[in-house]
Structure formats: structure tokens, C-alpha cells
Protein 1
Amino acid sequence: MKVTTERLPKSLVALDIELDQQQVSKGLDRAARKLSQQYRIPGFRPGKAPRFIVENYLGRERIMEEASDDLMNVALKDALKAESLAPVGQVKLDSFEAEPFHFRVLVPVEPTVELAPYTSFRLPLEQEPVSDESVQKLLDAQREQHVVLKSLETPRPAQIGDLVSVRSTSDLNEGEEDDEDEEDEDDVELPGEAEKVVTSADEDDEDDEDDEDDEDDEDDEDDEVVTSADEDELDELDELDELDEVDELDELNELDEADEDVEPDEEGLQKIVLEEGRTRPEFLEVLVGAQPGETRVITVSYGDDEANEALRGKTVTYTLQVEQVQERILPEWEELPTLTDFEGDVEGMRAKARERLEHAASEKARRAVLDQFMERANAESVIDLPDAMIEERAAELFHEQVDQFKRYGLTEDQLLQSMGKTHEEAVGGFTEQAERDVRTQLLLREIIKRESITLDDAEVAAELEHFLEDYEPSRRAELRPMLETPQMQRMLASTALDRKLRDRIVELTAGQDGETTADEHVAISADAEEARQLGDLVGTAPEHVEPQPVLEGSDGAVGEDEPVTAPQLSEAPTSGV
């Protein structure tokens, strides 16, 4: 066998493979025996007809067609081994000639990464100070979670601090509507912040509804049916991520916004808290002083910077029918530690709130440095990406989307139909994101190698304990067996490796001393999916934890159980090998 190689752009290697006559003859003999078992040849038992008889009966072209698959598969495997090539995607046939037996394939290989001079990047770690006002807002938010609603014994006008239930209709002013953006009455929801409360003032009813919600949550968990134990464990972990620690800074930013849509409840009532900063000034002004049964009308003109895109540049007239005014009774500050199961007093809660906010501010600053680092490293590094890696990542992203919709009972065909796209078009829509992902993953993996970042068993065990810290002892005992499975160990290893890499990048760019304290740890839930993808694609883990390949299904091996399929002679030469 004769093999010649040629390096091509986009990390492709062309292999020209020519088989000698002896190899071809043996392949034709095997194909003839196989065909003689499939066809009844007069005068011979199945599988016993000589090759020349089979050739006379079926034709040489038919035997060559049958032999080509096996000949090309074996020759390609030998050529890859001889040239020390590991494909990172599907090998494609470029040309084929039967006489003499010669074919050319294009092999996508691991791209060479020419890293930017990242060690010279200098990016300051700019952490925003935590103000007393921010601490107070966080405490206020905790207090709000325990508000009690009281129906008024004697009707009175609504006042600041009350919860007002209104039935709203709305109209876009004439000349504002167009064919694409026409709004029906009641379609425009009131801007403001909705109070997360029940409509009844009876505290027992509120508790009953909470109990029903808990039962519904349990039912939802029980109803989750998956096809494998591993998928079940991953779903469980995703659920835990959603319940874990939130980013306090983002939470406070949401509290500052008074432009959230107030969605109607089951009775069609919209509930508005009459407080500055929680309700738009226009609605606050018109609703303070309103009595149950009264109707108030207000016209609001929205600017181009309106948070709700549907309302930008619009003028809307709202008719508000006041149905109920309720007094909101907040717990005394001294009661809050007990209500929130905090061991300590209010001042202790204040100190803990500040600690949480400072931790969140620190992580926000670190993320900003990491984002700037990756943006610059991406721009200044040179990676000749093979299309195969991008295509496979795009396919992964699409199928991740399909899996998300399957949870809601939507099949892939139904999703494609709703998108109005073919499978190929839908996958192609992820090409840009896929290219960014693959570039980032290759860059990070190269940095890990350059910086000699490793992980040992003790660090994975510590990551598991760190994850369990926020759960009650009984819950920890339930979660531990799940987290000790090989798949979850890979996830924990990926997260731990991700943290070490982030710490090292911050050290390099911001001049930190290299020691990472416990307070600097990032909660797994904050970036669980990002960490998983990063760690899976980096593929560095303790010896007992099998790392994930660079791209799932692209480990580069051509094993005996996964033969490379050659096309039939009638197929176009661009078909996949």
C-alpha cells in the first residue's frame, strides 16, 4: 500500500491511498465468497463458487463494488495508524478509482493553536463596593417574602404600601398600531412590579396554597421520566442548580427595576404594590387614593428606552377598575431571623447579607476579567478550525435544544415544523455559536496545558463536599450517592478544573498571589452549565475519572467495532467515508 499526505487549510489532511494488486485480489476473493452466499449460482453450493465464476455471473463491477467498502475501511485504518493521524470528525471521500484501486480522503485533525501572548495581558480587578443601601435592600427583600395581607374591615382609599387588585383594559392610541404589532384589548399588561402574594387575606388559605404548590412540585419531580439513569441524575442536578444560591447583585438589580410586567392572576386581576420604585410613577399617582369599585383612566407614553420592547414608542390608555385594596403587614425586624431560620439576630443577618453581597461583587469583577481575557485571547490567537468540529458542536447545540423541548412533550419533528426549518437548516443556525464554543474550548485547553493545571482525587472529593454544603444533612445523604456516580464525578471534576483555571487567569491578569481562599469559590449553580461544557471539552481529570472527549463522538479513534463505511461506486465522491 502506498500512502501520501498533504496538509490543507482548515486543519485538513489529504490522504492519497493506493492498494497493491495483492491486497485488491484478496479483497475481491472475500467479496466473491460473500456474493456467492447471497446469490444462487447454478452448479455450486452457497459460498463455494470460485471468484471467476461469480465474476462471470455477476460481473467484475459488482464484485468490486462489494469489495470496495472493506478494502477502503481497512486501508484507511492502516493509513491513519501509519501517519499517526487522529480524526476529530467525519472523514470524507474526495475521489475514488477502481482500476488501479486508488482513493483520496480528507481527514479533519486537531488544529494547531497559536496562543496570543496571554501572560502579558493586564486587566485590573475592579470590584464595586457594597453600600449600606444594597445591604438594606437585600434585607428588605427577605422581609417582603413574609408579608401578610389583610383585607380592610372598613373601606378606605388606597395608600402608599397597600396592595391594589385591579382589572385592567388597555388601548393603543389611534395611529400607533400596524399590521405586525396590532394589540388587542387587555393584551398590554401593566408595567410595574408584581407582588408575589395570594388574593385572599386569610393566612390559612395562603398556607394551603403553599402546601398545594409543594405537592405540585413533588408531582412534577415524580412525573419526570427519562430513558437512562444517567439522564435522570443529570436532570436532578439541573434541578438542584436552579434551587442553589442566586447572584445577589442581579437580584438587587431586578428589585430596582419598576418596569416588569404585572401578569394577571387566574381571575384576571393584576396586583400592584403602591410603593415608589416598585410601581411606575404614573400608576402610583393615579391609584393612591382610589377606592374599591372606582375606575381610573390613565394615558402613558413610553420612550424608546422602555424596558418592555412591546411598549417602546407607544402611547397606551389604561382603564383600571379597582377591585380590592389590601393592607400589607410586614413582620417586625426582630421576627425576621426566626422566620428565615437564621441563627442569630438582625445585626447578624445584616453582616451575613453584606458578606454575600461582597462575595457576589467579587465574583462579578472576576467574571468581567475572565470575559475580557477570553475576548482578547480569542481575537489574538490563531486557530485553523476544521469545519467538522464546528458542525459537530452545532449539532450538539441543536440536540440540546431538542432535549429541552422534549421535557414539554414536543418532538424534534414538531420543533422543526414550528421553526419552519429542515434539520440541516436548524443545525446551521447554531454555526456561529458553535465556532465560538470550539475556539474557546481549544484555547482553554491549551492554556491548561501551558500552565500545567492538574487535578487530583482529593480536589474532586472537596468539590463534592463544597456542593453539599448548602443542603441539610438529610438532603446531603440523599444526594451523595448520585454525586458519586462516574458521570457526576466527571461533572464535579470539570467544575473544579474550571475554578482552578479561572483562578490562574485572574492571577495572571490582575496580579493575585495565586492562593484561592474558600471565600473565593464560585457556587457551582452560578455557572453549572458553562462549567460542565468547559470541563467536558477540556478533558483533564483525575486518573479514576474518565474525561469527556473534545467533542462528543469525535475521539479520533477508528475502532474495529466502528468501521469506516466506504461509498458504493455509484455514489458521489464527496460522500462520507
Protein 2
Amino acid sequence: VCKYVALELKSAFEETGKTKEVIDTKYGFLDGKGSAVKYTQSDIRLIEVTENICKRLLDYNLHKERSGSNRFAKPAICT
């Protein structure tokens, strides 16, 4: 299972790493200080990816007749 968690995390980071968005953090509670942070280097990106990892893992099918990590497989995409 850890293998597929790592694969899905890598895939999700590759998908979200293509944006050029910048997050403005110049809205401090008292002093209004802060700086702009690229989305690709933000904590928000990490949180969003980890929140969606369970949904991605539910796409896998479990094959009882196979052994080891081959028991898990994503269904083939038919177009």
C-alpha cells in the first residue's frame, strides 16, 4: 500500500506543479506584514494533495488471485 501512496503523491505533485500561481500572504492579523509565496512551494499545496490522496487510492481494484503489490491495480482507461 505504501508503494501506491507514494506513486499517487508523486503523480498529484506533478499535476499541481504546473501552475504559476502566487499566494499573497500580506494580510497579517496585526501588522499586515507578509510575502508572496509560489503555490508550488506552499503548505497549501501539500495539504490539498494529502487531502485528496484517499480518493485517488479508492480508484484501485483489489485482485485476490494476485500476490504482493500486484494485488492492486488501476482499471484501464477506455476511450
Protein 3
Amino acid sequence: DQVDTNPFLLDDSSLIDGRMSPKVRIVGVVIGDEAVAYPMPALAEAHVVNDKSPVPHRLRPAPVRGSPWL
């Protein structure tokens, strides 16, 4: 698998969100009812994140229990 190719499980291109590669690793942080995803390449470049609103990648809580992402 190459980072810049689609995962074999995502044969349906309508399932792929074009904002970033489907294989980019992220760090997810949940505080209260807010969930934020930070792409690892951005964290590697920044080293420290002093995040203030608006957050770059906001995700809403998933309706499935135990999964914080949609």
C-alpha cells in the first residue's frame, strides 16, 4: 500500500473525503462534546499546537456508541 493511493477497502470513491488522503494518520482528541482531528504530518511540522477556535478539522460525535468519529 502506498500512502497516496486509495485503500483497497474503499473501492467506492464516493466514500472518500477529498480533504486529505484516506491513509493520513491522525491524532483524535475528545474534550466534552467536541472532537478534533490533527493530521500527523501537521503535528510533525508544528511540534506544539496552541489550538484556538475555529479548529481546522471538526468532527461531530458519531451516533454509534464507542466510536467518537463519523
